[in-house]
Specification:
The protein is mainly α. It has one domain: Up-down Bundle (Growth Hormone, Chain: A), CATH 1.20.1250. Helix content is 77%, strand content 0%. The longest helix has 30 residues.
């Protein structure tokens, strides 16, 4: 490596030396936010809620749709609030609201209350979604932005790996209401890393990679719509399988602790995938990574449909691969394809579309289960539908050649 190469490598890793506090605060904050605590844990309560309040698979899917629609509806507002008040204030407010929401769920007495509470949580606790956290990190890192965003999203992976087994054990020992109380305590705990790590209003930031694509031009950008379509079709194809993963295992006779452990395997896969995808995204066209993750997930869904519960562990790993790549790539591709001053709004729109599709997917899975009496049809449908985002990511990759390395803002990190 020549002198220039050594300088660039030093500058790249110096970003981590100067930006570690932001990175740590964002990672813990996003993991203990709405994306880390709701998505991977609600399925643990379905069996108890079926007996307690009459929650059916289709109703559960409908409730998740309402939750995700509320979350998506709030996303444009979240993006503007991040731009106006900074990541710290928005993320902290969202975590506090999420904690209160979990306490409310612990008092559930009916399906109507359960559904209403989750819709309110979806809208108000959307402030704790990854928008603020990834915006903070994207504003600090340039040369290792992909890896930094991957590390940020590891927080969700850690939450997905560690929290479901803890909540499952708490439900077994103390009842399902105590499980929601535990989730409330974890959500409140996010206030510490958020307050200590995330920046307030604007700090030194990375120069826009493509200044010709400002926020005002998003609606006319073919790249924007291709990217949105890829993530939307991806979510529609596989999020419902993740949401129903624990109920699917329980219906096949697997115990709650074992199902919780298998759900935790999804989280472990998410962690590894986010590191790999984040690192690779700094070296190759990121859209190809999206296509690869969809193919891997399709293989897992089809394998589970054919092989049954005996393939639950490898299927969990493939699902984790898909959700891990998705969370990384929304931020990575948005930061790569649009200027930073449009990041919050562009990311919010992409995340909102993904969320709506992710809400429809569990509902469709629940309806198919009630129609067919098992989960084989949804698994087969998931494997087939994942071909669509594979094609869209391939088109996106061909339209957007690799960018030259961005200038590192290390001199501005501590300003």
């Amino acid at each position: 490596m020549d002198a220039r190469g050594h300088h660039l490598a030093h500058e790249s890793w110096r970003e981590f030396a100067l930006g570690w506090r932001v990175l740590l605060g964002a990672s813990f904050g996003v993991g203990l936010g709405v994306s880390g605590l709701l998505t991977y844990n609600l399925g643990l309560f379905t069996t108890d809620l079926e007996y307690q309040i009459g929650l059916t698979p289709a109703t559960y899917g409908g409730v998740l749709l309402g939750l995700n629609l509320a979350l998506a509806l709030a996303m444009p507002l979240v993006g503007r609030l991040v731009d106006r008040f900074g990541p710290r204030a928005v993320a902290a407010t969202g975590s506090a609201i999420l904690a209160v929401g979990f306490l409310a769920l612990s008092r559930t007495q009916s399906v109507a209350f359960y559904a209403a509470a989750l819709v309110v949580i979806g809208f108000c606790a959307s402030l704790s979604a990854p928008v603020a956290h990834t915006r903070a990190v994207a504003g600090i890192f340039a040369r290792r932005r992909g890896l930094a965003l991957g590390i940020t999203q590891i927080g969700i992976g850690l939450a997905a790996a560690l929290v479901p087994p803890l909540v499952a054990a708490q439900i077994v020992s103390g009842g399902w209401r105590s499980g929601f109380v535990l989730l409330a305590a974890l959500a409140a705990g996010a206030l510490v890393p958020i307050s200590l790590g995330l920046p307030g209003k604007r700090r030194g930031e990375v120069p826009a990679a493509r200044p010709d694509k400002g926020a005002a031009s998003l609606s006319s950008s073919v790249t924007f719509w291709l990217q949105l379509a890829a993530f939307t079709s991806m979510a529609l194809a596989f999020i419902g399988i993740i949401a129903h993963f624990v109920p699917m295992l329980r219906s096949s006779g697997i115990s709650l602790p074992e199902a919780g452990a298998l759900a935790g395997a999804i989280g472990l896969s998410v962690i590894v995938t986010r590191l790999i995808v984040g690192w690779l995204a700094d070296h190759v066209q990121p859209a190809w990574l999206g296509a690869a993750s969809c193919l891997i997930c399709a293989a897992g869904a089809l394998g589970l449909a054919v092989g049954g519960p005996g393939l639950a562990f490898p299927a969990a790993l493939t699902l984790g691969c898909a959700i891990g790549a998705e969370a990384d790539l929304i931020g990575i591709l948005t930061a790569r394809n649009f200027p930073l001053d449009a990041y919050s709004r562009a990311y919010s729109a992409q995340y909102a579309a993904f969320t709506v599709a992710g809400g429809l997917s569990p509902l469709l899975v629940g309806m198919l289960v009630e129609e067919t009496g098992n989960y084989r049809a949804p698994l087969l449908a998931s494997g087939v539908l994942l071909v669509i985002p594979v094609a869209l990511f391939a088109v996106l990759a061909r339209r957007n050649p690799p960018l030259p390395p961005a200038r590192s803002p290390v001199s501005e990190i501590n300003s």
